[in-house]
Every structure is written in C-alpha cells, then in structure tokens.
Amino acid sequence: MRITLAKSAGFCFGVKRALDIALKTSLLKNKVYMLGDIVHNEDVVKRIENAGIKKVKHLRKTKGAIMLIRAHGASMNIFQKASKLGYKIVDATCPMVKEIHKIAKEMENKNYKIIVIGDKNHDEVRGIIGQLKKRAIVIDTPAKIPLNKIKEIKKACILVQSTQNLDKALKTVAILKKYIPDLIFFNTICKPTRTKQEEIKAMPLENDSMIIIGSKNSANTKRLYEISRSLNKKTWWVNSKRDIKNSWFKNTRSIGITAGASTPQDVIEDILNYIPSLPSTQRPQKGEY
Ligand code: SF4
Predict the structure, then answer these.
(1) pTM here?
(2) Would the CATH topology of 2-9+192-282 be identical to that of 96-189?
(3) Measuring from each residue's beta carbon to the nearest atom of ligand 1, which residues come in under 6 Å?
(4) What are the φ/ψ torsions at residue 35 (nearest 5 degrees)?
(5) Which residues of 35-46 are buried (b: 16+ CB within 10 A; e: fewer)?
C-alpha cells in the first residue's frame, strides 16, 4: 500500500501566518475581536476561541480592544470604522492578498475599470472591491458575465481572487477580451493555490483512491474534492479519521491524500497514521503474492 501526501496539503503560508499572529496577539492584555472565523475549520476556530479571541458580527465602541483582520483581508471601510470606534488594529491580511489590493488601487488610479473574478460573497473579494473608490464588477462564473455592462467598458483590469480555479478564470478572461479593447489581466491566484490545483489534477490519476481532508464548510476543500472526484470516482471527503471507512480501501494499492488550506497539520497526521492501521490496508492485496 502506497500512501502519498500532496506537498501542498493543509495550511497555506497566509493562513499559518494569520494563525501565528492571532495566537501572539491573544497573549496581550487587551481583548481581541475578529469579524468572522479565522479560517473555515472547526478545530482551528476552537483553538482561537480557547486562546480568548472572540468572534463578533458587529463592531461596538471600545477603549483599546484589538480588532484582528483575518488572512482574507477587509475593506477600507472596516479599517476606518474600527479605528473610529476605538479599536487597535492588528492586520493579519495575507501579503498575497495585500498585493491584489495594491494592484487594484494602482489600476483604478490609472482609470481602469476593475473586474474581479471570484465569489461575490467571499470576504477576500469584499476586501478587494472595498479598497476602491468606484464600484467594481465581480464575476463568479463565465456563465454569469454581465454583458450589457461589459460592452460599455473601454479600459479594464482583471484581477482574480487568490483561491480561484485558473482554468475557469481563463475562460472568463477569454470572453471579456472579445468585448473590451484595452484589457489588462493580472493572474493573482496565489502560488500555494496554483500548486494545490496542479497536484489535484495529477494525484487522482496516479492513485487508486483519494482522500480529501477538510471541513464541509471550506470552499477550497470542496473545490479539491470536486476536481478529484471528476478524475477518480474513489474520492472521499473527510473531516477527521472518524469519517474513514475500512471498506473504502479493499483492493486498493495506492492512496493519495490532500487537504484544504484551512486543515490543521495534526488532523492530517492523525489520518496518515490511521490509514495504515486499518485491516483493509494491511491484508495482502490482489496480485501482491
Ligand atoms: S490562499 Fe493564498 S492568498 Fe489566501 S491566505 Fe493562503 S497564501 Fe494567502
């Protein structure tokens, strides 16, 4: 039985960094608040809560509490509102998301209409468009391009949410190119996401089964699962070792494992240790005598 773990499995650099900043900040005397979960993973959220960081929905007046900005970033409006209400801000926005903010602002100053390819309701996308003076256009799928608006644009700059699927984004870019005469495209999908996408296109074809580890509310884990499942029907999405069934690995000679960007390392290691202990992975497999 061969078990291969994807190089990119688990926390990306930006999430690791945000978590480190959060835990260091929790050691300060001030109360620490966050708008929303640090990442979409129940174990990590619990760890953050246990460290004393509170998740809130709305900002209230304070004297010196800390507002922690998550890896996804936030709009200028949130920064300004938090400062006005008396929060000290600790900004854990991923540097790669910051880079997207910088490009968006620079290109807007050069009079380019900003188009963002991404999930309309995702915090990262809200944070990007929330840096701008003018309203940006957000496109989540090639099928939903607002052609009436697009046809009127002469000059535009396309940015992509850092975790988007490159192939899907390129389809949108190809359509926009037909309508907008001066179009600049920045592929702002981050390096960890690109590596993850490359691996998930190869691993399901190189292994008999695939295990995708991550929370059911993690969008990037869902994306990994969908790609893997389309290439290999023996793909399973698990949140912890408790979800794994012995019967999955009968007559299996190789298992590929990957994990979403918000899955903690200890959950991955737990599963790596658990699979070889299952009876179906210990018996001699078909053709192995
Ligand atoms: S997915 Fe990419 S952009 Fe987002 S936090 Fe991770 S490294 Fe940063």
Answers:
(1) 0.87
(2) yes
(3) 12-15, 71, 94, 96-97, 162-163, 190, 192-193, 261
(4) -90, 100
(5) bebbbbbbbbbe
Report how far ligand 1's centroid is from the alpha carbon of 250 (Å): 36
| H and E: helices and strands count for the chain | 11, 12
Mutate to test the pocket of ligand 1, among 162, 191, 218 (most ligand atoms within 8 A of CB): 162
Spacing, Cα 119 to ligand 1 middle (Å) = 15
- Reported CATH class of domain 13-93: alpha beta
CB of 120 closer than 8 Å to CB of 147? no
Residue 47 Cα, ligand 1 centroid: separation in angstroms? 20
Q: What is the CATH number of domain 2-9+192-282?
A: 3.40.1010.20
Query: Domain ranges in the chain?
Result: 2-9+192-282, 13-93, 96-189
Please state the atom number of ligand 1 nearest to the C-alpha of residue 124: 4
- List the Cα angle 174/185/129 in 5-degree steps: 110
User: Token match 């100053």: residue?
Assistant: 109
Along the 289 residues of the chain, how does pLDDT read in single tens digits?
Answer: 899 999 999 999 999 999 999 999 999 999 999 998 887 788 888 899 999 999 998 999 999 899 999 999 999 999 999 999 999 999 999 999 999 999 999 999 999 999 999 999 999 999 999 999 999 999 999 999 999 999 999 999 999 999 898 989 999 999 999 999 999 999 999 999 999 989 999 999 999 999 999 998 887 888 899 999 999 999 999 999 999 999 999 889 999 999 998 899 999 999 999 999 998 887 555 454 4
By annotation, the residues acting in catalysis are: 124
Is CATH 3.40.1010.20 correct for 96-189?
yes
